[in-house]
Amino acid sequence: MISRLPHNGAFSAMRSRWFGSLAAPAKEPRSIPFFEADKDMPQGVASTLHEGAGELPASQQSILMPEAVHEVARLPPASRQSVLMAEADQHMPQGVAENYRFWGQKRTVFVKTSKGCRFTDVDGKEFVDFRLGYGPIILGYRDERVDRVVCEQIMERGTLSGFSSGLDSEVARQIKGLCPQIEKIRFANSGTEAVMGALRTARGFTKRNRIATVEGSFHGLYDEMMWRTDLDNWDYDGKTEPHIIPAGGGIPPVSRDLMDIIVLNDFEKLEDLFKVRGDSLAAVILEPIIGNAGSISASQEWLQRLRDLCTENGTMLVIDEVKSGFRVAKGGAQELYGIYGDLTTYAKAIGNGYPVACFGGRRDVMDAIGSHQGGVVHGGTYSANMIAVSAAHATLKVLAETDANKTIDRVGQQLMDMLGRVFEEAGVENHFAGPPAMFGMHFGPNVPTNYRHWRTTRSGLYQCLDFAEVDLLFVVAGFVVVIVVIYVLFILHYVHCA
Questions:
Q1: How close are the terminal C-alpha atoms of the chain, in Å?
Q2: CA-based diameter of the chain, in Å?
Q3: Which has the closest alpha carbon to 455: 270, 234, 213?
Q4: Reported pTM
Q5: Where in the chain do CATH 3.40.640.10 domains reside?
Q6: 352 exposed, middle or buried (CB, 10 Å; 0-12, 13-18, 19+)?
Q7: Beta-carbon contacts of residue 216 (< 8 Å; ≥ 6 apart)
Q8: Which end of the chain has fewer surrounding CB within 10 Å, N or C?
């Protein structure tokens, strides 16, 4: 969620660490509509802060053809982003480096500067960013405690050598200190790679091939993990099961052959899985808190039963903490539950925005990796490069030695309280799921217990953009009130970034 707040002098003068200081605009900001919303921006509703003239940065000029640079210079500030998008569209599919950055031709954002919890786009509009890079920026943009360490390390040792540095084992030690279930780890470059490494290791250790996932979870962008239940074309009558379909094109049907999908918090389907697949199941992988489905969560009892069944059947329990790791608690979701996996994947918050990930777990399982006969192959040119491990080292040090996680929890709880009051006063039934550091909002009489239930509800503010026009108007009006309340709260409490 990204929000742009209305500009005024009092807000400019406020210097909270949550927002950072407001840069002086190049010209007196003019008032523009409090909210701009359209269905061309499916991943969020934005409210306008202000526009400044500003200059197109050299880094953006360098990616344009010379004639395009001149064209941008002649245009009013509000048009610069659209010109950049038109130019980018000539070189990349949809004009973006990866699918999830595309918010439509009119609303795709090009960033000029960022600091703390805010960024400025190339048109001079300033935003408060509640998403922070899909989750990695746990300490805020350009945190000097991390960036300084990274710069020092690469100036001394370079970015990559292909050899060990000693810092990789130090980061492993830090992770083990926060996460008691981790005995050994290996590094990766993304959450997708970490999941691939963990599942290959589970297969190598168990000598089995089948993998089960939980409906609605997200485990990266490789073929086996990109199968989902087709709930859009399911009638929810409870008598039939939805079809399993690929999440997009280019995913071969054969990648489905060794996959099973179970339903969160459904004991009957969980028992059936192990009755049918128990002796061939290498691993069950899940997010205990499903970040892409409004943070609906596994119940304590269901997760414990899954843990017990995995142990009884020699199946590896792989807990995906790419989103929740080091965020919902220093030891992640497993610390909250007190239930631990055989293997765990981490990414996102571990490096405060630098590309670093890892997977790890039981010593005997991880020791299946190696160059010995029949050993699991794991590697990567950029794994544990100096940029990655120095960022992880600095970030984990801050998280371990400060009350950053308590700050995140406190702010999350304040947001939940405010949002709850707004909707209650409007007579809108609402509930929250997940811990304060990673909460989701749901409309209706109950918190959904699984993905199927979630899909039958109006289960997230982003989702409302796809509903009828009256719902869209409700969301916009509701957010106006929410932003005003947030604005007042931040002034009163001077909330800090972690």
A1: 18
A2: 69
A3: 234
A4: 0.79
A5: 144-401
A6: buried
A7: 264, 290, 292, 293, 296, 450, 451, 454
A8: N
